Amino acid sequence: MKTKKAFFLVPYLAWIILFVILPILLILWYSFTDSSHSFTLSNYVTFFKNGTFLKMMINSFWYAFLITLITLLISYPAAYFLTKMKNQQLWLLLIILPTWINLLLKAYAFIGILGNNGLVNKFLHLFGIGPVNILFTDFAFIFVATYIEIPFMILPIFNAIKEISPAVIQASEDLGASKWQTFRYVLWPLSRPGVESGVQAIFIPSLSLFMLTRLIGGNKVITLGTAIEEYFMTTMNWNMGATIGVVLIVLMILVMLLTNKKTKRKKVNL
Amino acid sequence: MRNKHLIARIYLSFTLVLLYVPIFYLIYFSFSSGKNMNKFEHFTFAHYQTLFQDNRLLAIFLETILLALLSSLIATIIGTFGAIAISAMKKEAHKNTTLALNNVLMVSPDVIIGASFLIFFTALGIGLNFGSVLLSHIAFSIPIVVLMVLPRLNEMDYSLIDAARDLGANSWQVFSHVLIPTIMPGIFSGLFMALTYSLDDFAVTFFVTGNGFSTLSVEIYSRARQGIDLEVNALSTVMFLFVLLLVGIYYFITTKKSRRKNHRVIGGLVK
User: Fold this and answer.
1) pTM of the predicted model as reported, rounded to 2 decimal places
2) Which part of the chain is the ABC transmembrane type-1 domain (chain A) (predicted)?
3) Mind listing the domains of chain A with CATH numbers?
């Protein structure tokens, strides 16, 4: 019996040790050493003393926050309306399908769409505006990132709203609540688990969309994800790259702890 | 009430248009004889001809598929074993710790996974080539397989195993005739998710691939950085059709299998 258990456990445990624990330890070790492998804190000193890194950190979070917020604003009504539709399965399939197209291809499409002679500028030209330089700006980065994340936000919210019993909404209306009150005190709190999982699914990946900042955002190093890529692949200063990575991991854990606490604290009182 | 329905329709249609414009924009210009995505010149199949004569790209395409098949298959085996091992754990604390470690790669940003794997391979002296990419893809696909298989194991009726043993089945027979068939739907969705993870990955591959090996994502990235190339547009049409086929197959198989849990089934399509 024992040997059989080991047979299942060993390859999986080997994976955990080699590809989960060891890489974390290695990235930590690199962040605390210099290029000659001797212990140093100088990477962290550089990170927190040098204004550019701190600015980048704030930027990353600000952009991730904006992307998440705009995605939520567009996706929530879409998810809500989706629950009212007759052919839900078909609509859902149509919304999910674009997530299957390679991310790089979608980003590439926007190089054409947002260009000076692209679709958006042609549209603006109809109104006598233009040509506006959109490509290679921070706005373009946020726009494309939002586009990519929308389906990932619609789905969890849709599932959450779908589980709310229509009787609850009807009860709220019968008791004289206005549309806004029904939304604010019934629909929103009950659909919050969906919103939260959507936010978590978008916020963290938004921190590491370095290929978008490279292709669409004008090759500038504006987020921590891009900085890590820059230090690992271009300047080859792995120690500094690892340091940024560790800071990103710590911030990520903080964000997750914060959102988890909130869910526990705010239980719905009906 | 009807009015409300209309707003819903308009809003959803608008969202869909937004989601599909970039894809059809690419496909539309793949038939243009021009050199950019600004003006449609003449209808032509020229870019498709270049695409199908581009041996380098075709080789990359085949290697990407080989990589996805191999990595998802191995990840499914290790992940299923892992799920079986986790469900057999007696202490709740052990289970939770293992699951927490399992989920580390699920929540880490891709750049971190890529960077730490790059350090890992270099530290162990493993060269950056097909092997390192394969190992990475197996590594980041295992947790999702575990998460797909584990619920099936938890739902399983363990008296089935006792019954099989009472009827004289040996360990191998219990495993292959009782356990595996019962959790097969979970294994299948795990395999499918692993397949899409691998096909779709860019960031991790970008870090751990050397000069000799490239996947489709990495290749598209390096081409897109050089500007617009309508051969990439033609490629996107081909990939769009490929995805339609894949989704069609998945949809067909799963809806046939479990008609009742329909909305969950579609949810399974999300990466």
Assistant:
1) 0.86
2) 57-259
3) 19-49+224-255 (no CATH), 51-222 (1.10.3720.10)
